[in-house]
Amino acid sequence: MGIKGKLDKMVVLACEDCKERNYTTTKNKKVHKERMELKKYCPTCKKHTNHKETK
Question: What CATH number matches the domain at 8-53, 3.40.50.300, 2.20.28.120, 2.40.170.20, 3.20.80.10?
Answer without folding.
Answer: 2.20.28.120
